[in-house]
Amino acid sequence: MDAALSQFFAQVDKDQNIYVDRLREVVAIPSVSSDVSHRPDVFTMGAWIQKELTRLGVDFEIRDPGTHEMDGHTLQLPPIVLGAYGRDPAKKTVLVYGHYDVQPALKEDGWATEPFELVENEKGELVGRGSTDDKGPILGWLNAIEAHQKLGLELPVNLRMCFEGMEENGSEGLDDVIVAEAKGWFKDVDAVCISDNYWLGDSKPCITYGLRGISYYKLAIKGPGRDLHSGVFGGTVHEPMTDLAYIFSKLVTPQGEILIPGIMDDVAPLTAAEEASYPPLDFNLSTLHNAIDAKNTIHDNHIDALKGRWRYPSLSLHGIEGAFSAAGAKTVIPAKVIGKFSIRSVPNMVPEKIDACVVKYINDEFAKLGSKNTVEVECLHAGKPWVASFEHPNYVAAAAAVERVFKVKPDLTREGGSIPVTLTFQDALNKNVLLLPMGRSSDGAHSINEKLDRSNYIEGTKLLGAYLWELSTKNF
Amino acid sequence: MDAALSQFFAQVDKDQNIYVDRLREVVAIPSVSSDVSHRPDVFTMGAWIQKELTRLGVDFEIRDPGTHEMDGHTLQLPPIVLGAYGRDPAKKTVLVYGHYDVQPALKEDGWATEPFELVENEKGELVGRGSTDDKGPILGWLNAIEAHQKLGLELPVNLRMCFEGMEENGSEGLDDVIVAEAKGWFKDVDAVCISDNYWLGDSKPCITYGLRGISYYKLAIKGPGRDLHSGVFGGTVHEPMTDLAYIFSKLVTPQGEILIPGIMDDVAPLTAAEEASYPPLDFNLSTLHNAIDAKNTIHDNHIDALKGRWRYPSLSLHGIEGAFSAAGAKTVIPAKVIGKFSIRSVPNMVPEKIDACVVKYINDEFAKLGSKNTVEVECLHAGKPWVASFEHPNYVAAAAAVERVFKVKPDLTREGGSIPVTLTFQDALNKNVLLLPMGRSSDGAHSINEKLDRSNYIEGTKLLGAYLWELSTKNF
User: Which SUPFAM superfamilies match (chains A, B) (predicted)?
Assistant: First the structure.
């Protein structure tokens, strides 16, 4: 393995300008999945992937998720590309996932350069939409295969691939395909690797073993039959906004403590291993202050802040539908207001129990108000939290690969948000899933001036290859 | 006086179809002051008034308020028409006010008929935009003059008139003219009469002696430097929405009780005379329930409901600027939210003291939250409450005129909203101001299918004339 990896690393270094040109080629395809006018570009990008797989000798099939409705149009969904490279029963089989669609981007949004023209700046950053999210990582896998082929080296594992074109727009149709292929295209899979997130900071690689879930609620309070003038009716009716303010104020404290009884009961206790994983992390309060462009953090140390971000639940009030929301002054008593809030959940919380706690509590609190208005709570969508064991061989292999490439032990991180496909793979295949990021915290994935550092792209390509070699040595 | 009024009433009955045709003529001029494309029609309507004054031998001058900015255009403001009819030093001088502009109206809004074509339906309702607000009342004054002229009867008082064309759009420029003319065009005025409001119900006339004031606030809470993703940052920052919900919940109870210390201190006590004015009122809880299209009233009797509407202050939460307000689910932590609320004030509350109480209380409550966010409270606009003595001869005359025309004692009402010109006249001229409505509660002044009952128009014309005769007999 050591000799093979030395050759492989040297080949990657040698071909790095080819890889950058390849990234330039795909960044130039504006595959924005949430924009009707760019839907053909998403298909062009899907075709580019298929052309590359053909060139590399990867077997592939496409799955057609059908059509969907968007902005008044019925649109064809882009293909889900399933690849298979190697079918040796003596080898482990690894499923890798990536998405070939991107977020919208317009120069006018504040980009320093044209978003769909890859530019390498003086800091060695490859700037362009999709560079880090998620075209760079997809190319990482393809580059690794190509480098092995140039060296006449066989890959130490069988690969399965799942590349979709709707991730930035709800991954429509993907879950059904994964479930359907669990005993089909994916039947031999031993482990899953997703490269679609980021280092915790900017200097140290990480591997990610947990994500929070979400339960998103609408809380509708209805009073008068129509909006009323506050001069004529103020002081005579129970106002829905007043009731909503009371209920909102009973959900969470300004310090972030959730006040709903029962919500904290199922939060998994902090283990010693997890506690030990925090101190080495590449993170401090100023990283957080820079990210939020302010200093209004709840905690006075970065470890509690990270625990607040990813291993404890949180509750955020997002806003109100139906109230006056424009600039200026309007003297309205809104007739019906819909408060929006969500709870980020962590293991071992389950959506059904969260719902039960939320609904009971809100109804109880509303009854105390003595209001003649009516209340209705509804969960708009829910996703379960996810956590994997970082002691699984899949993680041990990834950590060893990081040490091999970067000469440093990786951070063991979770994330506060959700990557729903993670849980789908885990539940459908019942295999360990690993998140192995290529880019950095500062890449600006959904923002202007998205970038992927050249070093992250090139060392990341090495990392993905090394991970496959390390995994091939594990027994599980 | 009795003989003169008998003749006058008979003449009004005889000419009623002429009056309806005249109303049809002015409703056909779509003098919408808040719509750039209709501004020429407002001028056409102003010219129509001047033509009528000329025909009736009323001296008049116009005051030009200049220009204003609206929707990106610099527009000429419509003329304020000042009329003078009679200059006999032996007579009382009465100033009457009306506005010749109207609210917007489109058939598509849900009108049963074309809004700018007056239609008389089978219920005897004259349906059309401006019929009741406020072209009918303006014509009432002109009809009364015409009827006297036809009869060869001299008016028993001198009249001064103030007709504006911007009432539905902030009465821009009017206050300055009133203040400037206090010792000019209006210098001999003994009493003021405004016919621009409505009966309390649908069956009994009223005269109106009080209006609430308003103090409108924005309450800005600022946290992170930009909107944040609730997955990534929920649980790590003090969220402005949470703080705002807490402050909102401390302002007013679901029963409408204002919680701000000091706010209730200056509320004038209920006098015996005022208390006695409530039982005869044409109002009950079902009138209120119909008006709000629901039954969520705070009080279980109509007298407390009316006191809540017009003689006690109220506080309404209107909405939030900067939070998520659309349909659907967005997982945002808004960086800066601006809560909007207002207090309807009553005598003897003063805006400066209201401001002081609000600002101190919010800052005190915010300090208790232990939040690292910042708060800022600002009063966007304030208007004082107004109340007149209904024992003044101006009111006694109006009440006698109501009894003469309708054979019933009028309701003595206040209103919960504001008619700012009322206070301007009172403060600038230092004379008693009376609100003497022509239309009914159900006229739908700012709504679709605005109407003025034929009987309200014709009996209302009699009322305005009778009021002038009754006033001429008073000494004050």
Answer: Zn-dependent exopeptidases (SSF53187)
* A167 a catalytic residue: yes
Dihedral, CA of residue B183, residue B187, residue B190 and residue B195, to nearest 10: -90
Q: Could you give the ipTM of this predicted complex? A: 0.89
Closest CA to A239 of A332, A351, A353: A332
Domains of chain B: 2-211+385-472 (3.40.630.10), 213-267+312-383 (3.30.70.360)
Q: Which residues contact A170 (CB under 8 A, 6 or more apart)?
A: none
Kindly determine whether residue B241 and residue A316, on different chains, have CB atoms separated by under 8 Å: yes
The C-alpha atoms of residue A20 and residue A7 are separated, in whole angstroms, by 20
Residue A257: pLDDT above 90?
Answer: yes
Could you tell me how many CB contacts below 8 A there are between chain A and chain B? 281
Binned at pLDDT 50, 70 and 90, residue A109 comes out as: confident
Q: What is the pLDDT of residues B349-384, one digit of tens each?
A: 999 999 999 999 999 999 999 999 999 999 998 999
Q: ω into residue A134 within 30 of 0, thus cis?
A: yes
Residue of B nearest to A217 (CA): B329
The yes-or-no verdict on residue B112 having pLDDT over 90 is yes
Which position has the token pair 């022509």? B438
Instruction: Find out whether B73 is annotated in a ligand binding site.
Output: no
By CB atoms closer than 10 A (0-12, 13-18, 19+), residue A330 is: middle
Phi/psi-derived region of residue B295, left when phi > 0, alpha when psi is between -120 and 50, beta in every other case? alpha
Structure tokens at B440: 């009914």
At residue B177, what is the residue type? V
State what percent of residues in chain B have pLDDT above 70: 100
Supply the residues of B annotated as catalytic. Answer: 101, 167
A156-189 tens-digit pLDDT: 999 999 999 999 988 999 999 999 999 999 999 9
Annotated ligand binding at B287? The verdict is no
For chain B, the C-alpha Rg in angstroms (whole number) is 25
How far does the CA of residue B142 sit from the closest CA of chain A (Å)? 30
* B141 vs B38: CA distance, rounded Å: 26
pLDDT tens for B143-195 read 999 999 999 999 999 999 999 999 998 899 999 999 999 999 999 999 999 99
Residues paired with B215 in a beta bridge = B343, B382
For residue A445, what pLDDT is reported?
A: 87
**Which phi and psi (to 5°) does residue B24 adopt?**
-60, -40
Residue B402 CA, chain-centre distance (Å), reads 21
Using an 8 Å Cβ cutoff, are B126 and B457 in contact? yes
| B148 annotated among ligand-binding-site residues | no
Pick the closest to residue A355 from A266, A425, A437, A474 (CA basis).
A266
CA angle B259, B260, B266 (to 5 degrees): 110
The pLDDT of residue A291 is above 90: no
Q: Does residue A243 have a cis peptide bond before it, meaning omega lies within 30 degrees of 0?
A: no
The residue written with tokens 């009918």 in the block is: B136
Distance from CA of A196 to the nearest CA of B (A): 15
Among A276, A273, A256, smallest CA distance to A264 is for A256
Average pLDDT, integer, range A410-425: 93
Residue A447: pLDDT band (50, 70, 90) is confident
What is the full DSSP assignment across B384-438? --EE--TTSHHHHHHHHHHHHHHSSPPEEEEESS--HHHHHHHHHH-SEEEE---
Q: Which residues contact A68 (CB under 8 A, 6 or more apart)?
A: A74, A75, A77, A172, A173
Q: Which of A11-20, B328-337, B458-467 has the lowest mean pLDDT?
A: B328-337
Identify the residue whose tokens are 């071992």.
Answer: A348
Instruction: Note whether A256 contacts B249, CB cutoff 8 Å.
Output: no
List, in order, residues 6 or more apart from B258 with CB less than 8 Å away.
B251, B252, B264, B313, B314, B315, B343
Catalytic residue among A125, A146, A164, A167: A167
Inter-residue contact A371 to A246 (CB < 8 Å): no
